[in-house]
Design a protein that fits this description.
Layout lengths: L9 H7 L3 E2 L1 E6 L7 E2 L6 E2 L9 E13 L2 E5 L2 H13 L1 H12 L12 E6 L29 H13 L5 E6 L13 E4 L5 H17 L4 E5 L13 E3 L2 H17 L6 E8 L6 H8 L6 E5 L8 H7 L4 E6 L2 E2 L4 H13 L1 H4 L2 E8 L1 E2 L17 E2 L2 E3 L5 E3 L1 H11 L12 E8 L6 E8 L9 E10 L2 E7 L2 E7 L2 E10 L1
Parallel strand pairs: 5-24, 6-7, 6-16, 7-8, 8-10, 9-11, 10-12, 12-13, 13-14, 14-16, 17-19
Antiparallel strand pairs: 1-4, 2-3, 2-26, 5-21, 15-18, 19-20, 21-22, 22-23, 23-26, 24-25
Helix pairs in contact: 2-3, 2-4, 5-6, 6-7, 9-11
């Protein structure tokens, strides 16, 4: 189903001395093509400008915005269980799946996912309720990450191996331990602020514990969805002032404990409160928080600008959205691309992370007794009981977005968003994101990669870049293409 490696030599670009598009990857709305490289005998050349197309994409590489950290999904306990079961059943299929998801090799027909999000303790996709310190123990002497199912850590290690050094790990608790809450439960209680310092220490021990297992935590949130309370699944109310107090303590512990590069992010909740909760928290502790992260379940992606406008020096992350079993394949592709793969980045997010990376065809397993995802949460990949698996629509959205910004060279930088606009009578038929990816010093070249992600109808389109013009007839579907040009 997926094409093989696309072996492109940069010498070709240097030889012609002009920009040419050889790499075009398509996913068609009718599923006849699924993230496949479109091979052609002749490249798409940038030439002297002529008449513009029905849609005219203007790329402005003089306007450079945020760095992009990558695309990915969550490794919940349930996802790890599903993947571990596959490994035990068919090891070759397991490693092929991880390779298709995470292998970053340049030109490969893989998603090259580079971000994984891991709950700290139980979530609504866990086999049982647990924290890393279930007994009341203010000294945290009984703290242990081994409270989690063993297969979480083995699967995370395999993913880290498949990602070949490019994996960034985001973590967040769904609740503090029950004894740190007002009602003595992880199921829909409220954090008890008398445990502020102890919870900060708990989070520090989590980061330290990950490191001891061989995993560097890139970013940690104080609490997942701090305004969500559900008595059937791990959730916990946490007000922004208390969140900022915890973050201040945690920042000091991380800095003094050798984890100064680990970022702390605020909020981890829906777009609709972007102007309120995270702004309050970040203003209370500006030195502690790197920024804030957002989910898709209420509000609009444009709400991210409320936070950006209030805190222009802080970072934004998009960290959760899930598909629903039985929804329309192409409508999902369109929504996820417009709002996440292109939209979240357009509104300054540095990441696009979806919910479960793998589940079965019914959106299971889930926490016994939990009532979340009543309509069935669809994972990025569905793994069947016979060891077969299929990539869902979320996979293709992630793959198209990720391939536009992953490093061109081993050890090279990730992409940056750059300026782009669309004109012409059919401009509204396209959604476009544009990105620039620099080169590693070892590459010995200053020819950057310039990429477009385009969600499109069938439109004859011109692409303008540095006074030159290329023409391409975008089919109905999702397209990622790129070319190289001197820095």
């Amino acid at each position: 189903m997926l094409a093989g490696l696309a072996c492109i030599s940069l010498a070709l670009f240097n030889a012609v001395g002009a920009q040419q598009i050889w790499d075009v990857w398509e996913t068609a709305n009718d599923q006849s093509v699924l993230f496949e490289r479109q091979f052609g005998d002749v490249p798409i050349n940038f030439v002297s400008p002529g008449p513009t197309g029905d849609a005219d994409i203007v790329v402005d590489d003089g306007s450079v915005f945020q760095d992009i950290d990558g695309f990915g999904a969550a490794l919940t306990d349930s996802s790890a269980q599903i993947l571990n079961d596959l490994k035990n059943q068919d090891s070759d299929a397991y490693w092929n799946l991880l390779g298709t998801l995470f292998n970053p090799a340049d030109g490969a027909a893989t998603a090259a996912l580079s971000v994984i999000r891991v709950p700290l303790g139980a979530s609504d996709f866990s086999p049982f309720l647990y924290s890393y310190c279930d007994q009341q123990d203010p000294s945290l002497s009984s703290f242990s990450l081994d409270a989690a199912p063993f297969y979480l850590w083995s699967t995370l290690a395999d993913i880290q191996s498949a990602a070949q050094g490019q994996l960034k790990i985001f973590v967040a608790p769904w609740s503090a331990p029950a004894w740190m809450t007002e009602d003595g439960t992880m199921l829909g209680s409220t954090f008890d602020s008398q445990f502020t310092d102890i919870f900060a220490q708990y989070l520090f021990l989590s980061v330290q514990g990950f490191a001891n297992k061989g995993f560097n935590v890139y970013a940690i949130a104080i609490q997942n969805e701090p305004e969500n309370s559900n008595p059937t699944v791990p959730t916990m109310l946490l007000d922004p002032d208390t969140e900022s107090a915890i973050a201040s303590q945690l920042r000091s512990l991380l800095d003094n404990g050798g984890f100064g590069s680990t970022k702390i992010v605020s909020y981890e909740h829906n777009w609709d409160q972007a102007a309120f909760y995270p702004v309050t928290a970040v203003n209370d502790a500006p030195q502690a928080f790197a920024g804030a992260s957002f989910h898709c379940y209420e509000g609009s992606v444009t709400d991210q600008m409320s936070f950006f406008d209030a805190e222009p020096g802080k970072e934004l992350y998009f960290t959760e959205c899930t598909g629903t079993i039985g929804s329309d394949w192409w409508e999902d592709i369109k929504w996820d691309t417009e709002n996440l793969a292109i939209g979240a980045l357009t509104y300054y997010a540095r990441s696009v992370i979806l919910w479960n990376i793998a589940l079965d065809g019914n959106g299971n397993p889930k926490l016994p007794g939990g009532d979340s995802c009543q309509d069935g949460c669809r994972a990025v990949v569905t793994v069947n009981s016979d060891g077969s698996y299929q990539f869902n629509q979320e996979y293709y959205v992630l793959a198209h977005g990720s391939r536009a910004i992953v490093p061109k060279d081993s050890g090279g930088p990730f992409g940056q968003r750059i300026g782009v606009s669309v004109g012409g009578p059919l401009a509204t038929k396209l959604q476009v994101g544009a990105y620039k990816t620099g080169r590693a010093a070892s590459a010995g070249t200053d020819w950057n990669r310039y990429s477009l992600v385009v969600m499109n109808c069938s439109v004859q389109t011109t692409i303008e870049f540095r006074g030159q013009q290329a023409t391409y007839n975008f089919p109905v579907g999702l397209t990622t293409l790129w070319w190289f040009a001197e820095n």
